[in-house]
Amino acid sequence: MIQDNAPLWEALCAYRQRGVIPFHTPGHKLRGEIFPRLQAHLGSGIFQLDPSDEIEDLALDHDFERALEAAQQLAAQLFGAAHTLFLVNGTTSGLHYLLYSVSGKLVIPRFSHQAVYTGALLAGNECIYLPVRFDPEWQIPLPPTAAELERAAADHSPAAVVFTHPTYYGTCAELEELVVKTHQLGALAVIDEAHGGHFRFSPVLPDPGLAAGADGVVQSTHKTLGSLTQTSMLHVQSDELHHLVRRARRILETTSPSLVFLAVIDEVRRSLHERGSELVGRAVELAHCCSARLERIPGVQVLPSQLRHDPTKIVFSLRELGLTGIQLEGILRRDYNIQVELSDYFNVIALVTLGDTPETIEQLCRAVEGVVERAGHLGGRKLRLPDLSYPPLPDQALPMGKAVRRSWEAVSLRQAVGRVSAEFVTPYPPGVPILVPGEVVSRDTAAYLEWCLRLGWPIRGMEGVALYVIKDNAL
Ligand SMILES: Cc1ncc(COP(=O)(O)O)c(C=O)c1O
Q1: Which CATH number fits domain 276-378: 3.20.20.70, 3.90.1150.10, 2.60.60.30, 3.40.50.720?
Q2: 224: CA distance to ligand 1 center in Å?
Q3: Which secondary-structure segment (H or E) carries 78?
Q4: What is the rounded average pLDDT of the residues 65-75?
Q5: Is the pLDDT reported for residue 61 higher than 70?
Q6: Is 116 in the pocket of ligand 1 (CB under 6 A)?
């Protein structure tokens, strides 16, 4: 296999070149002219490269299906997997295909992304939770340990264990140890590597899940490696799992996956083969410079290196100057035209990727210096630790799969106490669900959500200040 080829991208370009007269879908007939405003911004190429994936003519080199197979094999080779699938519905879909392929209980970190929960929901798998521990100073969720896995899995014989590697904040577990422990339990090790696709390309970054011996790994190629939004890769290490995830894809994927999206993954893979180490290496260097400069600004705290396993995720805080991360995100956006990835009570996270340049780093650092100069007017006294902590794991009244099929109503937080949640309720970040469908709303949970709302912390799964709960007569 030759990594210098990009079979799907080339097949698509050849189709465009041929100027076929299309009497097939899609309805735009490969012409942007009918939508001049779209064409003005997207150009005509996006339309000309967007035939449906049904066209197959081997003789004319139009066999997109075969080209996709070849492209996926090249990606598997580059990333060190036995098989790879290209995905057009993000890492969300890859996690769904993997978990759909598992029969039995799952052990998952409670701080898993919602896609892990919805994967379990689709497959009807029961979830056992690895507890959430927060770093006491930075208030960020920490990855699980092997001892926690052992305790959680005892008496359950899980079919699979899911790990998030890295977390949103760039922290990583002792993954190899966890994978070994998972295999000793007789379970599959599944890695949500949405934020770690770039690990493969720099020796100073943590080892990728595949190198740690995982059975299935899903990466958001769009998040850290620059392909178009919603394009991801699913890597597996056995033929058996490959057959299962392909079947899941046949069942769950659109029957019209975008060839543009798939071909872009292929071309990005070729570029990564050519320059991945150089591009990711440069991003790592820029990120180091950025952190070092931010650390030198009085009043700015940067997540220390013992927690910052992925240096390209720059977690920093102006809590000493009295600003919450949520306030800092707003100031950077409104006054400096800078949008960070996420913010929480203490921190903001700025992602540095292969798309950054010394200029973008300079702009970020200057903006933070500017905020610090004005901080006397903006903030106040040093921020204290939050008065409330993440509430204890709620009682479960109904399995998730049943809870999402019951009729529901929206009620105030106060009225919701003692009722059963119909929704995932998740402050972002860190994306740890406070409630999943079927769980009972406790007084602690309601108080914590009220506090998040007062801070202006975005919460998914609420309607304003109301929670969705299952109607009493539907329980
Ligand atoms: C940890 C984690 N897993 C999975 C996902 C889903 O990825 P995608 O947006 O590619 O579907 C995300 C998205 O933010 C995420 O942060």
Answers
A1: 3.90.1150.10
A2: 11
A3: helix 64-79
A4: 96
A5: no
A6: no
| Domain extents in the chain | 276-378, 400-474
Distance of CA 435 to the CA centre of its chain: 19
CB 425 within 8 A of CB 434: yes
Beta strands in 41-171 (DSSP E): 83-87, 106-109, 127-130, 133-134, 141-142, 160-164
Is the confidence at residue 164, as pLDDT, over 90? yes
* Amino acid residing at 12: L
Q: Residue 378: pLDDT above 70?
A: no
DSSP single-letter state for residue 441: P
Closest CA to 193 of 178, 175, 183, 203: 175
CA angle in degrees (0–180, nearest 5) for 302-449-310? 25
Check if CATH label 3.90.105.10 holds for domain 400-474.
Answer: yes
Pick from 363, 376, 378, 454: which is nearest to 413 by CA?
Answer: 454
Q: Is 91 in the pocket of ligand 1 (CB under 6 A)?
A: yes
Q: How far apart are CA 365 and CA 289, in angstroms?
A: 10
CA distances from 82 to 154, 199, 237, 242, 447 (A): 31, 18, 5, 9, 48
Does the structure show a pLDDT above 90 at 75?
yes
If one compares 452 and 475, the residue with the highest pLDDT of the two is 452
Q: In whole angstroms, what is the distance from residue 332 CA to residue 348 CA?
A: 10
Q: Ligand 1, residue 431: give the atom nearest the CA.
A: 16
Q: What is the DSSP string of 296-364?
A: HSTT-EE--TTT-SSTTEEEEE-GGGT--HHHHHHHHHHHH----SEE-SSEEEEE--TT--HHHHHHH
Tokens of 466: 């109301």
- 3-class SS at 136? coil
DSSP 5: -
Q: Is the CB of 90 inside a 6 Å radius of any atom of ligand 1?
A: yes
Probe residue for ligand 1, chosen from 85, 88, 89, 92 as the CB with the greatest number of ligand atoms within 8 Å: 92
Q: Provide the mean pLDDT of the chain.
A: 94
Q: Which of 234, 214, 189, 196 is nearest to 89 (CA)?
A: 234
**Does the Cβ of 221 fall within 6 Å of ligand 1?**
no
Which among 126, 105, 69, 114 has a CA at the least distance from the CA of 242? 69
Residue 127 has, within 13 A of its CA and on its CB side, a CA count of: 29
Our CA angle for 359, 364, 369, nearest 5°, is 120
Question: Does residue 162's CB lie within 6 angstroms of at least one atom of ligand 1?
Answer: no
Q: Compute the distance from residue 195 Cα to the ligand 1 centre, in Å.
A: 8
